Amino acid sequence: LVPRWIRPPYDVKAYGIVVPYSAHHEIRRNRYPKLVDFAFIGNRRDQSRSTDRVRRALVQLESEQDVMIKWTDLRNTAPLYAEIMMHAKWCFVPRGDSPNSRRLFDAMIAGCLPVIISDKIDLPFPDVVPYAEFAITVSEDEWSRDPRLAVRRLRKISKKEISSRQNNMERYVQ
């Protein structure tokens, strides 16, 4: 029997705060040159789980120009994970197994603007950190129907707005 307070949807306001993870030790905070527009590095997970429809949709982007999708077990490829995130303009952040995602914090430290793909993510300290000023959120349904549409919309964002979002994000990265 699982207690009600740990079953989804996770209600942070009712049960406490989501404590952010520390960023991956290989990721360095700096403004690295952005060599690729979009990136995701991670595992495919259990293809039968309903939450993995988001990861299955990532496969549709593997042949897109300036999109790097790398399927791997992160335990064995930490330097590659960090390198890709530090050199990407936008990082795809699908919902994880917990109410939030370490990938969000890794992206922020790496200077990679998060594209949060989740309907149920609980962002920590929402009254303090204005995530909408730097992150883009895409619903799981929209993403799963056609992730290329989301990428096309992101490509239309001006360099000026991207720079503004990066500056906004840097204010909340220590």
What does the overall shape look like?
A: globular
Instruction: Tell me the Rg in angstroms.
Output: 16 Å
Mind describing the biggest β-sheet?
Answer: 5 strands, parallel
Portion of residues within helices: 25-40%
Strand order of the largest sheet: 2-1-3-4-5
User: What's the overall average pLDDT, rounded?
Assistant: 82
| Number of distinct helices | 7
Distance between the termini: 40 Å
Instruction: Please indicate the percent range of residues in DSSP E strands (runs of 2 or more).
Output: 15-25%
Structural class: alpha/beta
The succession of helices and strands, N to C, reads: HEHEHEHEEHHH
How many strands in all?
5
Uncertain regions: pLDDT < 50 for 5+ in a row?
1-15
Describe it.
With 174 residues, the protein is of the alpha/beta class. It has seven helices and five strands. The protein has a five-stranded parallel beta sheet, with helices on both faces. α2 (53-58) links the parallel β1 (36-42) and β2 (67-71). The longest helix is centred in the last third of the chain and has 12 residues, at 159-170. The N and C termini lie far apart (40 Å). 32% of the residues are buried.
